[in-house]
Design brief:
Elements: H1 5-10, E1 16-18, H2 27-35, E2 39-43, H3 50-63, E3 68-73, H4 83-92, E4 97-101, H5 109-114, E5 118-123, H6 126-134, E6 139-143, H7 158-168, E7 173-176, H8 182-190, E8 195-198, H9 200-203, H10 212-218, E9 226-229, E10 237-240, H11 243-253, H12 258-265, H13 267-276, H14 300-321
Parallel strand pairs: 1-2, 1-8, 2-3, 3-4, 4-5, 5-6, 6-7, 7-8
Antiparallel strand pairs: 9-10
Helix pairs in contact: 2-3, 3-4, 8-14
């Protein structure tokens, strides 16, 4: 049950992927997801140098013999980044599943295919996953507006994004945004997706190496406790609603420049919160609307096993109604 083109393509047991989260998706979390039957995706640009990325890949390979992926986000960075060096570091260290995001991976496809890599691309617009399919990726991920991080400017929810995407491309589609339990998992598969991407649910796990105060804080939040910031700079980001993030939105509404916003949206602020647990210190912390469904901090294995077992129960219930079977 739950075998799809994604499980076959990636060599994994369950079609459940952990979205790359900067400063969180390191070897410990990634290996835990892969060891539990899913696919962990490392956030490469959380590492300041390619040497650091290489060491993280080596450590992950010590912690798991299962497949895992490395994400390389092709967006402008506050520091100079030569993306080709990150791709080379990943494939040279034996990471043969690469996820790209941010812009078309076309300039790097020959490098990746010559290295024998399986390539996934994540986007928020149908036209962008169509472009990714055209340039030769093996699978695509579509994000709905419910997602943490960068869910796109258009604010289209997963219930629309997923079926539209599945109709638009022939390669397997992975669905992200608003998925955190068996109900979302089954719904995504019912709409045509062949896998799901989850971030916030894995953030709130024992295997995620962030301060316990942050995880406890997540459990106090509801589905209304996030907002979209950075739309004014065309880089919409879903974060926890706090005085700090509302201040950012206020600055945007009055026309603040990128230079004025940069000190407020610096990723280093979030990194400090994850390390210290000081959630009131002023940082834009990325979480999805699914945070309102999180009421415990289990292990990654418990999360994945729970989703699969509960999904089987959902299918049995639907079968009794005549909707499945």
């Amino acid at each position: 049950m739950f075998k799809t083109r994604i499980t076959e393509l990636l060599g994994i047991e369950y079609p459940i992927l952990a979205g790359p989260m900067a400063y969180m998706s390191g070897p410990e979390l990634i290996s835990a997801v892969s060891n539990a039957g899913g696919l962990g995706i490392m956030a490469s640009l959380g590492y300041q140098t390619t040497d650091e990325l290489r060491e993280a890949i080596k450590k992950t390979k010590q912690l798991t013999d299962k497949p895992f992926a490395v994400n390389i986000t092709l967006l402008p960075s506050a520091r100079p980044v030569k993306y080709e060096d990150y791709f080379l570091a990943a494939v040279e260290e034996g990471a043969n599943i690469i996820e790209t995001s941010g812009r078309s991976p076309e300039p790097y496809m020959k490098l990746l295919k010559d290295a024998g890599a399986t390539v996934m691309h994540r986007a928020t617009r149908t036209k962008d996953i169509q472009t990714a399919e055209r340039v030769g990726v093996d699978a695509v991920t579509i994000l709905g507006m419910e997602a943490a991080g960068h869910p796109g400017q258009e604010e289209v929810g997963s219930m629309v994004r997923i079926p539209v995407a599945c109709d638009a491309v022939k390669v397997p589609v992975i669905a992200g945004g608003g998925i955190g339990d068996a109900r979302g998992f089954v719904a995504a598969l019912a709409m045509g997706a062949e896998g799901v991407l989850m971030g916030t649910r894995f953030m709130a796990s024992k295997d995620c190496l962030i301060h316990a105060n942050v995880k406890d804080w997540l459990m106090t939040l509801g589905e209304m406790d996030t907002i979209l910031i950075q739309k004014s700079i065309k880089n919409a980001s879903r974060v926890v609603r706090t005085e700090h993030s509302e201040k950012i939105l206020e600055m945007e509404n009055r026309g603040a420049s990128l230079e004025e916003l940069m000190p407020m949206i610096s990723g280093q602020r979030g990194r400090n919160v994850y390390a210290t647990g000081d959630v009131g210190s002023g940082a834009a912390i990325s979480v999805g609307q699914v945070v309102g469904m999180i009421h415990d901090i289990p292990t990654v294995k418990e999360i994945i096993d729970g989703i699969i077992n509960e999904a089987k129960g959902i299918m049995q219930r639907l079968e009794k109604t005549g909707l499945a079977g």
